[in-house]
Every structure is written in C-alpha cells, then in structure tokens.
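Continuing the series of single-chain predictions for the mutant panel. This is the parent chain; the variants come on the following pages.
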Amino acid sequence: MRAVPRRRCDWSKPRKPSKVVLKKEPVPRAPALFLACSTKPYWVLALALLGISFAGPLVRLSSADPVAIAIWRLGFSLLIVAAFLIGTGEWRDWKRISSRELALAGVGGISLALHFWAWNASIHLTTIAASVTLVNLQPAVVASISAVALRESPTRRQVVGIAIAILGALIIAAPDLRGGIAPSGNDPLLGNLLAVSAAVTAAIYYTIGRTLRRSLGIWAYVGIVYSAAFATLSLIALSRGIHLAPQPPREIAIFAGLALGPMLLGHTGMNWALKFLPAYIVNLTVLGEPVGATLLGAIIPSIRQIPTVSTLIGGAIMLGGVIIAAARTTRGSTVNA
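Parent structure:
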C-alpha cells in the first residue's frame, strides 16, 4: 500500500484573508406618518412635541362640550389609523394578542378617555399655561409606576431632572394656584385640579403603552386604545345627553386639526417612541409642551394670552430639567416599530 505524503504548510505564502461580515444593529424606523426623518426616537418625539403644542390653543378655540371635542378628535384619528392598519398589514397583530394584553389595552383606552375628559374641561376653566403645565406633571407619576410595575427605575440624574422640571411647572402655574388671578380663567382652582387628575390618567395610559408596545406594532396598538377611548367617551356622552352632531364647519375644522396634530403626530408619535424609551423619558420630553402651547396662545389673535414673567422663568427651568433627565438615555431597539 502506497503511503500518501503529508503536505507541509508553507508559511511563506501569503494567506488570503477571510471575509468578515459585520452584522448591523437594527435601528428603529419611524412609520411613514413621521416621514422617517431619522432612526432616533428623539427626532420623532420632537415632531410629537410640535403636534401636541397645538392641543391647548385648539381646544380653547372650540366652543363644543369637552367630551364632544374628544369624541370627534378620536373619530377622525381612527379613520386615519384604519388606513394605516390596512396599508401596513399590522391588523394581523390582533390575531396573536392575548386576553391579558387586550384587557390592558382596554384599560389604557379608558385612561386616555378620562384624560381627555378632564383635561379638555380644565382648558376652559384655567389658563392654557397652567393647564398644560399641570397635566404634564405625569412624569413623576410615571416614574413611580414604572419602578414598581415595569422595574424601570430612573437614575439619580433622571430623578434630579424630573424634580427640576416639576419645579419649573409649579412656577408657571403659581399665579393660578394662589387664587386664580389669571386674566381668562373662569374657575382656576377647579381647572387646575382637573389638570392634575388628567396627569394621573395619562401616566397610566403611557405606562401601559410601554408594556404593550414591546409586542404590538404602533398601528395595531393605537387602533385598540383609541377605539376603547372612543367607546368610553361615547357612553359618557350618551349618559349625559351631550350634543355631538351636527357641528358647525368651524368646529369640524378644529376637530380635524386636533386629530392630525396633537393626536396622530403627537400621541401616536409618543406611543411609537415607547417601544424604545422608558415611559418617564417620553413624558419628560413632552414637558416642553407648555412652552409651545403658551407661545401659540400668545400669537393667535382670538386667544391672546401673553405669557407672564413666571411662565417664562418656569419654562426655562422646566426645559433645563428635561435636558438633564433625558441626556444620555439609550435603550435597545428593534426593527419592527
């Protein structure tokens, strides 16, 4: 039997380098509604902030009942959400949703409905500055709920930022809290209390969103939540005999504006970001709403609420707290938003 000679390795010959394939980390993609302007959630939150800033002034311009405003706003929003559900195929997410997730989404929708009811009423009783400031105290509530229910405790830096932001919010609302000396407030104390209750219900809504957005696409999630909120407010309207239709063209235009700006660009944008950022960070970002809403309230001729010195000082302090708390916050992300 002939022996096969062994081959010696010729180390003098250059070896062909092996091809190394680097796997790219998936990045969050914004849905088409947000123009896919960036892969970072903070850019979507910036657009959401722009949309939400129009909520206070638009609600103040409306003469409809607060519940009617919320129902029409959600109704217009659901028409657009339905189109995105069909176009993206995210309605298929509903086939695999568990009963627990469905129940949680229902509670989130009820919380959103109560939030709209209380906050829309507060806008007509106190100033825009006080209402949007107090309703955005929700990060403090969200941080507490997140630490207990989601095990997402804020860092020391974030706690300091939240505290500074809340201090700024209280400075803005101080004139109303001292006895309602705001120029256009009808019952500032009641309006401020309603705004605080709206903050609590909004905190519950966003904390639930942080849980469910991990498994549900954005349109599948908001489709359930907005529908539950619409149904809840419709029952409230029927029980109280609130007039819903017909509405004058001016009111219809306001409702459509609320759906396109604060609802779809604002709320849906924040719900999209909940998949990638803790709920208290998302809420901290929208603390800039009082500044935007107050500026809009000052320049719209039919409102003309000139911001006071306390509003400007409080707004600067609050935005400083937001910057401190939101800095260097990174979360893992996935491709399917």
